[in-house]
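Final report, closing paragraph on structural work. Over the funding period we assembled a curated collection of sequence-structure pairs, and we close with a single example.
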Amino acid sequence: MKKVLIYIIACIALLFGCSCKENVTNEYNVKILKNTDYTFNKDFLANNKTCGAIDVINEYTYYIYDDSFPKELIIKIRSEEELNKAFDDFIDVDFNSEMVVLYGFTTAAHPEKLGEKYYIITEARLVDDSLKITCEIRKKYKNSRDLYVPDASIPDTKWIVFKMNIVEFSKIEFVG
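Its predicted structure, as stored:
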């Protein structure tokens, strides 16, 4: 009888432990914005490239393998003026309490695979001077039998755009 009672208690504990997946640590209200929430300024995109991306000059396409280009870019936007330099269109931001953070890096993933539709933030916290954002990939299905398989494009500087409460940090650690 004792073993049965212990087994039942263990099963209940396991059920409660598995159902607590929504236990998200997001102290700074970090949200990944959908790419329909904004439109980048073309000059901003042309002037903010990362190493390994492609660039087009005088109709010639080439890969940027110059050490003067960073591997990733972190841009913090804290005013309407800064926002207007990067975007032609953007959702409302209250700069008294919120900021926008742009995380740029080189990837061959399609841009629509990088936003809120593809990632779920499971944790966002400050560790020393680094904002650690942990995401998990949403599981997508084409139909009931096939797993969704991401496809690739030409390597370019792609951006993940975050809206969050104001906080000081110098690095972003993006774990996805």
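Confidence is low (pLDDT under 50) at residues 14-23, 143-148. Residues 22-175 form one domain. We thank the funder for supporting this effort.
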